[in-house]
Amino acid sequence: MALNVTLNNDAPKTQVGDTLLSVEDLRVWFELKRWGFGHAGYVRAVDGVTFDLKYGESTAVVGESGCGKSSLMKTILGINVPTKGDIVFQGRHMSKMDRSELKWYRSQVGYVQQDPYGALAPFMTVERILEEPLIINGIRSKSERMERIYKVMDEVKMSPADDFLQKFPHMLSGGQQQRIVIARAMIMEPKLLVADEPVSMLDASVRVEILRLLRNLQEQHNLAVIYITHDLSTVRYFSERIFVMYAGKLVERSRIEPLVQNPLHPYTQALLEATSDPDARNASIYRELPPGEPPSLVNPPSGCRFHPRCPQAIQGLCEVEVPPEFIPAPERMAACWLYK
Ligand code: SF4
């Protein structure tokens, strides 16, 4: 169900400053092994992705299931190890971080999962859930931990906190559980929040509240946000820029409004056109996908990976040569031979 975007039509207010995060030619390949025969190829989940994110900037990453957006997210979170390329955070290369630096890095990147109930340990109280990252990160004073817990509970509108701190996750509604997931993501006061479809498993009635909460936190804390979603209806509200992924690659990068008004890449055009809603900003990718299936990431098509589905493919070129990133307008990138 697409969300009606009537929350706030103001442009997102963020301060654009120095670069917080750089993703440099990132590849995340998973080796396939055939029983008894050893190496059987690679799943090229992320295959040469490059972008920068500034302090306080929010970027949405959209694409069909299996496009690589979740693998990209897990690599930024430090869960997946890059096969090639690197992630640079506040000038520090992740590949060169030692254990204590990785611990610091993880404390600076909050993670909001898709499924709040699955994300919360069922045997822990809310207080224990919020206290754990503080203990892991060396905050020894109980009073300091409780001070932070009360502050973050207030920020996620779970107040009075004493009404919730001794409850277990199953005693909370889905919306309350997601507020606790957000509180846990915020408790170390991170610079970057990675939100993986944060409202897709919630009732429509609470989606707006959770999106509004995330937006308020972003503004209050000058948070950079990577918002992973398949639902374009929430993107414009929440993000300044949008990255479109297809088969492990970024195929278009743009600010939101120019992309909605004039999508460049044929895949982005198909995503926006694939809706009966006259307002393309309310499009949901899954109402109707472009014809054909997303390709195998083990044996992706040669040349442009979208060419078997592309109505504008240039014969003799698109199926042979991989399109580089063209910049047809300021702050716009399209990996497509049409913009050579
Ligand atoms: Fe279509 Fe060719 Fe552009 Fe790929 S490079 S999207 S096949 S026109």
Would you kindly provide a brief summary of this structure?
This protein has 340 residues and is an alpha/beta fold. It has helices at residues 69-76, 99-107, 116-119, 126-136, 142-155, 174-186, 204-221, 235-238, 256-261, 266-273, and strands at 19-34, 38-54, 58-62, 84-89, 92-93, 109-112, 192-196, 224-229, 241-246, 249-255, 326-329, 332-334.
Largest sheet: 8 strands, mixed
Shape: globular
Element-level helix/strand string: EEEHEEHEHHHHEHEHEEHHEE
What portion of residues is helical?
25-40%
- Low-confidence residue ranges: 1-16, 275-287
Number of strands: 12
- Rg over CA atoms, rounded to whole Å, is 21 Å
Q: Bin the strand percentage.
A: 15-25%
Which characteristics define this entry?
binds iron/sulfur cluster, four-stranded antiparallel β-sheet, eight-stranded mixed β-sheet, globular, alpha/beta, 340 residues
Written account of the structure:
The chain is of the alpha/beta class and 340 residues long. The protein contains ten helices and twelve strands. The protein has an eight-stranded mixed β-sheet. The protein has a four-stranded antiparallel β-sheet with strand order 2-1-4-5. Helix 5 crosses helix 6 and helix 6 runs parallel beside helix 7. The longest helix is centred in the middle third of the chain and has 18 residues. It is globular. The N terminus is likely disordered. Iron/sulfur cluster binds next to loops.
